[in-house]
Amino acid sequence: MSADFAANFFNYDSVEVHERSEQLALLAGRPRSDWAKVLAHTETRRFSRDETIISAGETDRALYLLTEGTLGVRLQADTEKTFKAIDAPSVVGEVAFLDGGPRSATLFAITDGELLRLRMESFETLSAREPELGRAILFDLARIVTQRLRLASDVIARTGG
What we know:
Blueprint (H helix, E strand, L loop, with lengths): L2 H7 L7 E3 L12 H8 L3 E5 L4 E3 L7 E7 L1 E6 L8 E4 L2 E3 L1 H6 L5 E5 L3 E7 H10 L1 H29 L2
C-alpha cells in the first residue's frame, strides 16, 4: 500500500498531528554500510492493525525503527484520543531509550507493519565497535527528540493546554 493511499484512506481527523517520515529521518545521508551495521544489531517484529506496540509505563530500554506502516500515539493521561500518527520510516521509543525511564505514551498500529528493535545492550555493543556511528545515532536522536518537543509545545500552545 502506498503512503499516499494510506493517507487518503484512513481518517485522521481526530489526530492532532500527523508526523510524516521525511520530517524526522534517522541517519539521513549515511552510507548503506552504516545501516547494515545498525540492522545487524536489531530484532524484527511484524505487527497487525490495532495491536498495541508499546504501553505507557512499561520499562523497556529499546529504540524502535518503524520500517513499514503507521503507528498512533496516545498520551498516558488520555487512553482514548490519538495525539499523533507516525508514518514509516521513523524512530519511536527514543525517550525511554535515552533516559531509561518508563514509556511516556502508548503506541498502537493504525496499519499492519514492521519494526526493528534495537536494545540498549545491542546499541552499546555497536557503539563500542563503531564509536563514530554510535555518536551519529545519538546526535540524530537528540535532534529528533527536540523536533518532537517543539511540535508538542506548538500543539499545547494552540490548544491552550
